[in-house]
Amino acid sequence: MSRIIASVAISGAYKIVEKAETRWKTAIAKWGKNEPIGFPNTAYYLPVIYGMLGYKVEKLGDIEFVLKKCRALLPPRVSETHPLPYLGHALDAGMATYFAEEIIEAINYRENPRFYLTGEDVTPDNIWLGAADDVLLRKRGVEFVDGTAPGFAAILGAAPTPQIAANIANELQKKNLYVFMTGENGGKRFAEQLVEAGVQIGWGVRLVPFGPDVNATVFALGFATRAAMSFGGIEPGDYHKILLYNKNRIFAFVMALGAVTEEWAANAAGAINWGFPVIADTAIPEILPTGITTYEHIVSNVPHDKIVARAIEVRGLKVNVTEVPIPVAYGPAFEGERVRGDDIYLEAGGGRTPMVEWVTSKRMHEVEDGKIEVIGPEITDIPAKSLLPMAIKVEIAGRHFETDYEPILERQIHHLINYAQGVMHIGQRDIAWLRVSKQAVAKGFMLKHIGVILHAKLHQDFGRIFDKLQVKIYTDETKVKQIVEQAREAYAVRDARIEGMTDESTETYYSCLLCQSFAPSHVCIISPERTGLCGSYNWMDCKASYEINPTGPNQPVPKGETVDAKLGQWKGVNEFLFKASRGKFDHYNSYSLINDPMTTCGCCECIAAVLPMCNGIMTVNREYTQMTPSGMKFTTLAGTIGGGISTPGFVGHGKYNICQRKFLSADGGLLRMVWMPKMLKEEIGDRLKARAIELGVPDLIDMIADETIGTTEDAILPFLTEKGHPALKMDPIIG
Ligand code: SF4
Ligand code: ZN
């Protein structure tokens, strides 16, 4: 490593550590040692510190230990008389930098809790999103694991002009990378430049403004560190494995735009620990490969029109970009983009016009592969700000195609269309909603391109289960109305078939082992009446997934002889479980949380728990971050039971599962439900009502307490008694 840059980095690290010390002393004077401190809604404390040291910072007083670590890590200051440092010194200084920055940011959160926004979106008067909470980590982090996002670019500073910033951002988006933005250069910031250039920013479009200061860079490293712990199953404190996981699996790099200050150099040195190289647009001394990375650590003086290509080349990133022949950019980075107000060229559905999407199977000779028809006006026939009715009908034929696969392909339409830049899609079936922007139309986007997208992508992802596909897009009102009628009939048949399936009448269940990558003993058994606990896989999805990929994570499990019909235990399932959990479990029960419940991984949508005093159960969804009557918040529950273990009294489950007939049926089922968050009640309200009627207690939903009634057992019991909740009259839940 160039000794000059190492000296600069070390000076920067000193400055940042000293800043953290000063901020900490002031904070202690103000609030005392016992003041709670941390980032919002996370089970990972201050994640870089937790990951590297295995140390939990929960109170201001805990920081003292970390500051001592920082001091110990800081190499001797560089002076005339002192020999110049080596790479190892700079890396240690970089690590101390990130510990110190995490402390500074945690104190920022305490001092001004509203400085950073929560959630995925920016607002007109604040664009800084701060630390990603655990909901975001799960949602976005899995994309790093499944390859939808190969990695991220951490951008420091600002480009010379907003237009150059926009070009760089767009190039990175097209490579499916996330862009984390921090720091300032000559009074300008990259994220602000994007806003100025009219580019949408936020998690949804993968352009994430973390914070205005260089300190906020630590949020990027915190995200990467948590990904290693959460998805790589690495224990906190096992810093070596965490750093290696990142080096090998998260393709990230730092892009420094503007004069590299001492603080920037310290951050850059820190990032090299994670295996993330630095690409700069200014002339700074370059650093050639050593043991840490096999590529250059620092590459400087790269022109802006080459900087993305160079970064990708240096980091050795193989970007899998599928070419879809349409005139706008296409990829997952554009999925969350919105089209609003004056930008709208065409709108369909959303309650304004009829719109429907329908995948249906045809005979082989009825389908001409790749044929796309627009029946009625095309975009080129209508003026800006038009409303059109629309029916998207996808006709499929294949020797091995089954009608059961229709809904699975239909569900892809939403994200596949959304991937097109300038096209927004919401909903499905007959409540779909589409907007096409003026910018997309100006580039030549037409309705026929929807067909092009569906043909290309469905073939690519599901080619194994069908042979031919054609798309008809109707925009003629009478025709659309006819298709809506036909589609509704098909939906009714489909729903009745799935609703009518029972565990008893099905001989083969499916496994899902996807989560074993981070919860090695976890095995989901998915039956028609128990969906996967993450909410992403039902029995039908698993069946299709198996057909598409016979050696994949979803394997058929012949249920075999019934061991216990009430608890939901079968011989074939037990045998499969024993093998798939590598001998850790020889049985569990699908329908109980009291008796040897199914294992739970970290990504369940909800967690149910026994409330002994109320003789019932509660459940809480991931989005609800407040206290629950179990005495634990969702994150604590997930941290306690979510590692692929079976914990009597607790179980993870999907939202959909709550209204399925087998939901905890061995423990009394839905009638035992005494508490759930209001937002969850509202979300599943219609199905909840229907199931309550089926159970003969039509007003059950009004008897279930929520946080407006109370968040302790003591507080909700009088309410349950007053309402005459059925759980109170049931057998004791714990015998
Ligand atoms: Fe598969 Fe279960 Fe993980 Fe969902 S929670 S991905 S169904 S293993
Ligand atoms: Zn999981």
Mean pLDDT comes to: 92
Question: From the helix content, strand content and strand pairing, which structural class follows?
Answer: alpha/beta
**Count of folded domains:** 3
- Output the CATH topology of the largest domain: Rossmann fold
The appropriate CATH architecture of the largest domain is 3-Layer(aba) Sandwich
**Number of helices, where a helix is a run of at least 4 consecutive DSSP H or I residues:** 22
Can you describe what's shown?
- The protein is α/β, with parallel strands linked by helices and 735 residues long.
- It folds into three domains: 3-315, Rossmann fold (3-Layer(aba) Sandwich); 332-499, Bifunctional carbon monoxide dehydrogenase/acetyl-coa synthase(codh/acs), Chain M, domain 3; 508-729, Bifunctional carbon monoxide dehydrogenase/acetyl-coa synthase(codh/acs), Chain M, domain 5, CATH 3.40.1470.10.
- Helix 8 packs across helix 9 (239-249).
- The radius of gyration is 28 Å and the shape is globular.
- The termini are far apart.
- The structure holds iron/sulfur cluster and zinc ion (ZN).
- Residues 512, 514-515, 524, 532-534, 536-537, 601, 603 line the site of iron/sulfur cluster.
Task: From the structure above, extract its key features.
Bifunctional carbon monoxide dehydrogenase/acetyl-coa synthase(codh/acs), Chain M, domain 3, six-stranded parallel beta sheet, 735 residues, 23 strands, single chain, binds zinc ion, Bifunctional carbon monoxide dehydrogenase/acetyl-coa synthase(codh/acs), Chain M, domain 5, four-stranded mixed beta sheet, binds iron/sulfur cluster, alpha/beta, 22 helices, Rossmann fold
